[in-house]
Specification:
Number of helices: 5
Number of strands: 3
Radius of gyration: 12 Å
Order of helices and strands: EEHHEHHH
């Protein structure tokens, strides 16, 4: 699944949120889940993929990531709950 995407990870429902951008969503989320990269996600155990959007080009993906990172937490929670009200881990949808 090599396609530019933004994604939001959490450690639990209404928990810590991590927003990122990648060109390979499956691989990047696996890196977070396996703690193979040091950083925020490893420190706060944000391993549940609760939201993602895919794009045709990286420019638009990066622009969207920057936009979402500036948002208030409540707006991010609303974004997640509009598409994923149960805060389910969406990673399995990517790898099936």
């Amino acid at each position: 699944m090599k396609k530019p995407a933004i994604y939001i990870l959490t450690n639990k429902r209404n928990g810590t949120l991590y927003t990122g951008v990648t060109s390979n969503l499956v691989n990047r989320v696996w890196q977070h889940k396996s703690n193979s990269v040091d950083g925020f996600s490893k420190k706060y155990n944000t391993h549940l993929l609760v939201y993602f959007e895919q794009f045709d080009d990286m420019y638009n993906a990066i622009s969207r990531e920057k936009q979402i990172k500036k948002w208030k937490r409540a707006w991010k929670v609303r974004l997640i709950e509009d598409k994923n009200p149960q805060w389910l881990d969406l990673y399995s949808e990517l790898v099936l």
